[in-house]
Amino acid sequence: MNVILSIRPRYVKLMMEGTKKYEFRKAIFKNKNINNVYVYSTSPVKKIVGSFKIGEIVEDRPERLWDNLEDLSGLSAREFFTYFNGVKRGFAIRIECFEVFDDPLDPNDLMPGFVPPQSFCYLDMHSDDIEQRTYPHPRNLMETPTHQTIFPDTR
């Protein structure tokens, strides 16, 4: 089973740069047999730009997640605690083997009428299509980063 996670472009960029090693969520997948996480970069990018494997999923109080993972979060304390405001438990997904797609995928090409998930959605019948369109083209970010071409200059 695979999932698509919707993530804002600035956080996707931090993942690609290797600064953000954990993705934080208020809710997590009920299916624990997730093989790949496909990353949908939200507006203005609106593409599936890469994928990663899950290293571990940590569940804890937001304060403890922050205390233990601050240096690997890619976030400021304000961003983190604003996101988790009013939440008693949170989840941290370890990002392993992030692969950047040479040609980011328009999800509408695979799934006409695609509506980006608020958080995540399971992806089963289209997983093979994504793999065929990206293999052997995905690459490990640490080898040859090209994320500069995916994101518009926001300066």
Automatic annotation (TrEMBL):
Biased composition (Polar residues): 143-155
All residue ranges annotated as the ASCH domain in the record: 5-99
SUPFAM superfamilies, per the entry: PUA domain-like
UniProt xrefs under InterPro entries: ASCH_domain, PUA-like_sf
Region (Disordered) location: 135-155
Name the record gives this protein: ASCH domain-containing protein
Organism: Methanothrix harundinacea
